[in-house]
């Protein structure tokens, strides 16, 4: 039977991880894997998570299933974090998922159930797994222009022109903040223009928000999502707790479906529960419970927010240091975009050949499209990267 299976394409990032591990050079720098690392190269367990886990160990008296959509308290806590009071709570259906990826997958399946013919507009570029899941589900993808390789910013005119070709029944996938893989974000005025196009075309927005708190702050990073959700009749929001709570392996995410009214919310809630049942039955609870404890306890929340702010400031500091070092070495400000980008990633906007030269000659590992994980740097490796970038002529 299984001899008919065909080999699947290797994951480029995982292949890069193995190449990095096999590289004996002491000066090698890993900028490929999309996880936060501190100055020592460790992805630490956050203090508030440790505290919550200790309390959970003392207090939890059962491991019984929660519900098909997960613990309602987790949904409430996350909806408050992401949306605040932007839309009435009784219009929001929500279901816990195995990570943000699970939320994205469930969102696509919900779209497919509702509109089998729906086209999904995706930014060029976008997170590769968006494309992989859509391809697997045999859903039609339409790329829209997003990143300008010359300015290393958003090709906003191209984006708007492409989004205007969407129609009612289509879906526009947007990154809520800290665009992956480019780090280039829309400003408030540009978000307003996107919302206007969505209202004109009738297309349904889907927001993937995986890095809230990593860009300009918790509320600031959610501002566009709140504004959009309040302006359009309905939308989907896939949220991840992997990065901002540092619980990658706990696979903690939430899918929200914002409806036009409470009656539609009930149908959406039932659909989300059905989809969970078909895919994995009950979602994992450990990470979700820790997040709920932190968000509903004043002391834990304050400690988490303080540490998250330290993480955010650390990445901003690395961006500023790298941009400054490149300005010093190049004698120009053409790398100033690095300090303007937000989140873990930036895209250099160079060729795969240059990326390969960085790896072979200098031990700098980044994805072939020149996406690099800023959080993979530290104060000592920034000058190494800057010198390598100048040496290969990026």
Write structural notes for this entry:
This protein is of the alpha/beta class and 394 residues long. It folds into 2 domains: 11-45 and 305-392, Aspartate Aminotransferase, domain 1, CATH 3.90.1150.10; 65-296, Type I PLP-dependent aspartate aminotransferase-like (Major domain) (Aspartate Aminotransferase, domain 2), CATH 3.40.640. The chain is built from 14 helices and 13 strands. It has a 7-stranded mixed sheet, with helices on both faces. The model has no long low-confidence stretch (mean pLDDT 96).
Break the fold down into its secondary structure elements and pairings.
Elements: H1 12-22, E1 29-30, H2 47-59, H3 72-83, E2 92-98, H4 99-114, E3 119-124, H5 128-136, E4 140-145, E5 147-148, E6 153-154, H6 156-163, E7 171-175, H7 188-201, E8 204-209, H8 218-231, E9 235-240, E10 252-258, H9 262-279, H10 286-295, H11 298-330, H12 337-340, E11 345-347, H13 352-362, E12 364-365, E13 371-373, H14 381-392
Parallel strand pairs: 1-12, 3-4, 3-7, 7-8, 8-9
Antiparallel strand pairs: 2-10, 5-6, 9-10, 11-13
Helix pairs in contact: 2-10, 2-11, 3-10, 4-5, 7-8, 11-14, 13-14
């Amino acid at each position: 039977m299984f001899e008919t299976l065909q080999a699947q394409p290797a994951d480029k990032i995982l292949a890069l991880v193995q190449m990095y591990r096999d590289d004996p050079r002491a000066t090698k720098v890993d900028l490929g894997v999309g996880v936060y690392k501190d100055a020592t190269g460790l992805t630490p367990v956050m203090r508030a998570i440790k505290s919550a886990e200790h309390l959970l160990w003392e207090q939890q008296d059962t491991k019984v299933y929660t519900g098909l959509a997960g613990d309602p308290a987790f949904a409430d806590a996350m909806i408050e974090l992401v949306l605040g009071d932007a839309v009435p709570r009784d219009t929001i259906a929500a279901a816990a998922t195995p990570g943000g990826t699970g939320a994205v997958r469930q969102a696509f399946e919900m779209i497919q159930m509702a509109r089998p013919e729906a086209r999904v507009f995706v930014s060029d570029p976008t997170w590769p797994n968006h494309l992989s899941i859509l391809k697997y589900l045999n859903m039609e993808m339409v790329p829209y222009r997003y990143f300008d390789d010359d300015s290393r910013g958003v090709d906003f005119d191209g984006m708007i022109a492409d989004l205007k070709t969407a129609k009612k029944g289509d879906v526009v996938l947007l990154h809520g903040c800290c665009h992956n893989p480019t780090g280039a974000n829309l400003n408030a005025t540009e978000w307003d223009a996107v919302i206007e196009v969505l209202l004109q075309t009738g297309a349904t927005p889907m927001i993937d928000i995986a890095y809230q708190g990593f860009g300009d702050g918790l509320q600031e990073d959610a501002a566009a999502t709140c504004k959009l959700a309040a302006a359009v009749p309905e939308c989907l929001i896939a949220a991840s707790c992997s990065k901002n709570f540092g619980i990658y392996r706990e696979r903690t995410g939430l899918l929200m479906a914002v409806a036009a009214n409470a009656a539609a919310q009930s149908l959406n809630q039932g659909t989300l529960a059905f989809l969970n049942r078909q895919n994995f039955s009950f979602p994992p609870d450990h990470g979700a419970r820790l997040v709920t404890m932190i968000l509903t306890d004043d002391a834990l929340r304050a400690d988490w927010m303080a540490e998250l702010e330290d993480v955010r400031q650390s990445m901003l500091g690395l961006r500023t240091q790298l941009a400054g070092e490149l300005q010093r070495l190049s004698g120009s400000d053409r790398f100033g975009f690095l300090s303007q980008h937000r989140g873990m990633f930036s895209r250099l906007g160079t060729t795969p050949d240059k990326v390969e030269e960085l790896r072979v000659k200098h031990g700098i590992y980044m994805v072939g499209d020149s996406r690099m994980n800023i959080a993979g740097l530290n104060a000592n490796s920034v000058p190494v990267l800057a010198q390598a970038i100048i040496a290969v002529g990026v």
